[in-house]
Specification:
single chain; 137 residues; alpha+beta; five-stranded antiparallel β-sheet; 4 helices; globular; binds zinc ion
Length: 137
């Protein structure tokens, strides 16, 4: 799960709909890393600024700052979204085009919610504690 900060509002385009302005602040994106190269390849892509816009989340990682990511064992992205259900949903459908169960795979991380609350929610699945991976590591 990727944590990002937007220093300024960013227009987000989902499909052909008119863009939605996402306000400055912190966001959490719940994604999986089942593709070739697994987690290192996927995170390397999220942490890199220069790339073509392919997924919804690329609009955020190119415009904002990727703070890092929590690697959660045995946590598919939809399960993570459910565990973080106390966070607001900024845009319906973000990253969830193929998902039947989630409103969005992007959540807002308000200032009032401490980092410990996020970690505790991620660990609530009963697996091992989530591992924080820094963008500069
Ligand atoms: Zn989902």
């Amino acid at each position: 799960m990727v944590a990002l900060a937007l220093p300024a509002p960013v227009p987000i385009r989902l499909g052909r709909a008119a863009p939605t302005m996402l306000r400055a602040g912190r966001y959490l994106y719940c994604g999986s890393a089942y593709g070739p190269g697994g987690l290192p390849a996927r995170l390397g892509r999220h942490f890199r600024k220069a790339k073509s816009i392919r997924w919804h989340v690329d609009q955020l990682t190119t415009a904002g700052e990727v703070l890092g990511a929590w690697a959660v064992a045995q946590g598919d992205e939809c399960a993570l979204v459910r565990r973080l259900g106390f966070l607001p949903v900024p845009i319906d459908g973000f990253g969830a085009s193929d998902c039947a169960s989630c409103r969005s795979h992007l959540l807002r991380w308000p200032r009032r919610v401490p980092r410990s609350a996020i970690v505790a929610a991620l660990a609530a699945g009963g697996g091992s504690d989530p591992v924080w991976l820094c963008a500069n590591a």
